[in-house]
Amino acid sequence: MTDTALRLKNPSVTLYAFHLCQDLSQELEQLRPDADQLWQHCANLSQPLGIPDLKSLPEKIPSPLSETGNTPLTYTAPLQLAGSPLTVQVYPAKIHDTYAVDLTLYCQNTTVAASEFSHFNPQGCLLASNIQASLGQTLVLYGEPVGTLEEDRKLADACVDAFFQGSDQKPQFMASGQLFGSPIFAYDNRKEKPTEQCHLLVWLNRNPETSKLVEKTSLSFFNLLCCRSKILFAYDQARWCYRQTRALYSQLEQEVKGFKELPREPETRLEQLKQKLTEMPPKTFEYAGYLRDMEDHKNAIATNDYNYDYWLNKICEHSLEDDTIKFLEDFFNQRTKRFKKQIETDMNYLKPGQQLFDQMLGSIRGIVDIEQAECDRALEKALRDKEEADQAREKQLESIRHQEQKAAEEREKQLERWIALVGTGLAVSGISSQTDAKPIESIITQLYSKESLDCPTAGVTPCLTYTVVFVLFHVGFGVIAGLIMYRIIKLVSK
Q1: I need a labelling partner for 67 at 20 to 30 A (CA). Which of 185, 269, 386, 411 fits?
Q2: DSSP string, 293-359
């Protein structure tokens, strides 16, 4: 059977997208900077859908949003399928800390081929890569099959193929079941990152009660899918934290190895330890922060797991006798339990690393304190030794200066003594030589006597002899007087 023979009545596509608008680190009424991103990306659908009015969607979103009671916004696209216009209805909501949107494209009172589901996703505009909802999204393809029950699986596959025509993001078939008396098929690409996930349900209405029950449980189904997205988001964030912590753990191992290979020189070792003491605390806080975040994500999974079960029970309250929703129950019974177990395993693996970080940091602090104290004592001793050496050098210089001063004073005294001695001797010699002038007159008389004129050399010898004796006598008398004066000065100086 060709795809053109696979047909549906009243086809529709619903996008359920969820975007985190608040963080735990923020106040209750404070929104994230990118909180309005979901509305902006929905407004960007105006171009591929050909609805200019959709561009102003963010301005029409009420603020603050409530979880119930918001008014849907309806737009009509220029595209027509089998003569019926394509209608777009946008229902915005806020679910606790999450902005959510129910965006439905539908054609009423018309029958289309499965291949025409490509018109519901022009340019891949409804894919996760374009909507970029931080918590993820789910797509529901809905319609009333025209063919037999045996053709339902083939019809579902044909609808998926057409919807993802020209895209490489088509999810794989995962499971099937029955809800409200109608078959439902689940497709998924099993990606962990929410903005890359592609979760899709094809719901084929084969029971008159289906549409009524869908309307009754629409809010429960909306909340169920929100819990599912938040569980997957929390697990993805926990895995991201695990990878970051593993990287820090590897750095810690390198630090431990480097700690054993520190140089032996005290100053170099102390400098490297101080550097580690500066670098390690931020890593320690970051490591502890990731572990805390992993604990928060595990609690978020547990909380949303509980809520998922609550809303699933609400849906089951309206289910029919032959309904089978094992694929919804398995997410609760298997995947979420596996997520929590994996996070616990990761944390048990990483917690010893935190203890090692703390112990190593404490050891480094202790070693730094000890080595710093030893360096301080060594420095203090070196300064004290230098001060003592400077004092000893100063004393030595003072002693030398004192000795030089004494030597100078002694030389000055010696000079004074010699001056006094020579002066005394000269004075006494002069006084002594002047006490008797007759010998001089006698010498002069003899030099100019007649006899000396007749014989010039006759009186020279007696004259010279007398003069030398005369001089020596007075000089000797002066020397004796000087020596007496020297003794007197010496005795006085003592």
Answers
A1: 185
A2: HHHHHHHHHHHHHHHHHHHHHHHHTT--TT-B-HHHHHIIIIIHHHHHHHHHHHHHHHHHHHHHHHH
User: Cα dist. 283→10, 242, 251, 255, 275 in Å?
Assistant: 58, 15, 9, 11, 13
pLDDT at 338: 93
Placement of tokens 């001797």 in the chain = 425
Report which residue type is found at 213: L
The C-alpha atoms of residue 238 and residue 344 are separated, in whole angstroms, by 10
SS3 assignment for 240-293: HHHHHHHHHHHHHHHHHHHHHCCCCCHHHHHHHHHHHHHHHHHHHHHHHHHHHH
Q: Look at residues 435, 415, 411 and name the one whose alpha carbon lies nearest to residue 423.
A: 415
Q: Whole-model pTM?
A: 0.74
SS3 content of the chain, % helix, strand, coil (to 5): 65, 15, 20
Q: Name the residue with tokens 């797509």.
A: 139
Task: Using alpha carbons, list the distances in angstroms from residue 12 to 81, 139, 156, 205.
Answer: 11, 10, 13, 11
Token pair recorded at residue 442: 């006698």
Residue among 42, 278, 207 at smallest CA distance from 137 = 42
Q: For residue 96, which of 198, 215, 230, 292 has the smallest C-alpha distance?
A: 230
Q: Which amino acid is at 131?
A: I
- DSSP symbols for 124-145: GTTSHHHH--TTEEEEEEEEEE
Phi, psi for 487 (deg, rounded to 5): -65, -40
Q: Give 243-254 pLDDT, tens digit per residue.
A: 999 998 888 877
- pLDDT tens, residue by residue, 386-410: 888 888 888 888 888 888 888 887 7
C-alpha–C-alpha distance, residues 87 and 78, integer Å: 9
Residue that is written with structure tokens 């002693």 in the block: 399
Q: What's the distance, CA 446 to chain centroid? A: 124
Nearest to 353 by CA among 267, 268, 424, 247: 247
Write down the residue that tokens 């004592």 correspond to: 377
